Request: fold
Amino acid sequence: MHKGKQGIIIRKEAFELEMGQPVIEFDGVTKTYQKGMHALNDVNIKIHKGEFVFVVGRSGAGKSTFIKLIMREETPNTGDIYVNGYNLSKMRRRDIPYFRRSMGIVFQDFRLIPTMNVFDNVAFSLRVVGASNREIKRRVAQVLSMVDLGSRARAYPRELSGGEQQRVGLARALINNPALIIADEPTGNVDPNMSYEIVELLTEINRRGTTVVMVTHEHQLVRDFNRRVIMLENGRVVADNLEGAME
Amino acid sequence: MRSFRYLVKEGFKNVWSNRLMSVASIGVLVAVMVLIGAAILLSVNVDMMLNTLQEQNVVMVYTVDKATEAQAREAFSKVQKISNVASAEFVTQEDGVKSLINDMGDQYKELFEFVDDGDQKGSWLPFGMRVSFKDLKKFDETISEIKKIENIDHVNDQRELTAKIVNIRNLVNSAGLIIIGLLFITALVIIANTIKITMHTRKLEISIMKAVGATNHFIRTPFVIEGILLGLISAIISTLATYGLYTVVANKVTSMSVSVVPFMSVLWIVIGVFLVLGVITGCIGSIISIGKYLRKEGSEFRAF
Reply:
């Protein structure tokens, strides 16, 4: 373990990907739940550093399982998963928190704490990793201005629009300067105009080098942004538009 | 350290934001602790009574009837020399009669004078000695040592009474321990439930904590601090409540000419027991519920 750039405690190996090693790799992954249903069936995916990937599919296609596996909330029945240089199949339970610090997550329902203002909601992620108050102030101000919410730091979630709340969620995901952002239907609860703004923000974050994986079912949005699209159906990858990633 | 300060603050916040539940659990904990306090105080008082009785535990040693005063006094000096004898007092025949009249009533005075041999009052009585012991454990040995002395006839002791009181004390102590044990478990359940409720109200926070990489230790600490805090507050209130109740009861009992142990002399025992109990129940109670929670619900942090 060592202290990262922001005095944040991370595991040394977290960001040390070998040359050419994917940020996310699913190698023959099958996940079956108790009912015997294949949530994912022999999935092989490689997502490299700096990519922006949309994961699409109908309800029940396996998108949720895909994210649960990436976050090491579930483990596969067969196959291996590598994320940010960690082999999730061999990961010890006590290493999971440190692994999760290497990524940021954006939720569909924002998941902001209603009793905390914007500043504290964003600072929360830094407190968890033991950052100093000075560091927290500096980083939160920086990230809030990045998502254009610098003036709303003292506002409470209930005083914000859906789009603004999602930007707070995004700021929280970014605060630890993660190598990977997982966005789970981030536009699901915001109006269409705001959806574009959110994805543009994610694109901007991606332009700065962060890998972004966004799960969505909004096909129009996917078409308009023209990125790599992985399509899941009945737990299998039925399309992987790698060309999008090349642009 | 930075994190710890933050987590302590969060623990205090938990107690406050969950104040209704906190007040309820403090209330029940205080009741439990006051009962425990009552058990302790009862035990301490029975102990004191026993000690007082033991201190007053005077055995009467009598000489044989035919012993002269000189022989009796010689025996008395031998009794005094026994190492376990704390004090000894010679009782003349005259004092013996006085004591009998005192115990039995003036109506027997004439009868006693009638059996007297001339002017020598109580000549029909043996000489006596009031003897108390240093170490009651050596009671039997000391009695047999006394009995070996020449001209000593018999010894009247209060062993039965002492034994009864010892039995009562043992009963009070073991009943007290059982009650304390049961109440301790009750206190644990109460704290565990309160913490569980706090955790449910902070479910969202915990789920986000897990998602952003908080360790279980980080998640657990505020709840443990909340539990300890509830225990400590209860301990302080319980000490005051026990003091108040004891003072009222002690005043009533003292007015019946029974002496009780002053509260101040057991204050530190009571505070100590309450604090230890509060901290331990708070700590264990919260660890039990958070542990269960983190294993089960805590891991399902995403709302798909």
Summary: The interface with chain B takes residues 64, 67-68, 71, 73, 94, 97-101, 105, 107-109, 111, 113, 115, 124-125, 127-133, 172, 176, 184 of chain A (CB under 8 Å). The mean pLDDT of chain A is 86.
